[in-house]
Amino acid sequence: MERHEDDTHPEAAVAPGYLANHAARLFNRGVDATLRPHGLTLALIGPILLLSWKGPMLQRDIVRSSAVRQPAMVALLDKLEAMGLIVRTPSATDRRAAMVNLTGEGREAARIGGAALTDANTRGLNGFLPEEAANLVVLLQRLITNFEHH
What we know:
The chain has one domain (15-148): Winged helix-like DNA-binding domain superfamily/Winged helix DNA-binding domain (Arc Repressor Mutant, subunit A), CATH 1.10.10. The protein has 6 helices and 3 strands, in the order ααβααββαα. 15% of the residues are buried. The mean pLDDT is 92. The chain starts with 15 loop residues before the first helix and ends with a helix. With 150 residues, the chain is mostly helical.
């Protein structure tokens, strides 16, 4: 999508918060477009990638590890289970808790999701020198830290 200088307020065009948010929206839109043909979305691959990284987890720990609130995460997990990407089984130590694990199809979805994220980041860094990309990461980490502490 081509951008025109007239489309953005001059103060927003140089505001780090606006630019970071706009970059995130474009990133998310691109990743969703890549995932859509596979029946996946950015929201759905979040718990899949977490399980791929950490292995089987209690449902409540998935909620704690995520920015998604509990009712929304339960709905995501319900959908992932209906799609055959995860299985939930009662915990051996707490009958009220459910252990969540990826299926073979879920591991493939994690591979697809991880590749979509990697490709989107690579596209975003197109034309950056390695030191520029490293500096951008450091600067964004500082920006995030500043937002978290104020």
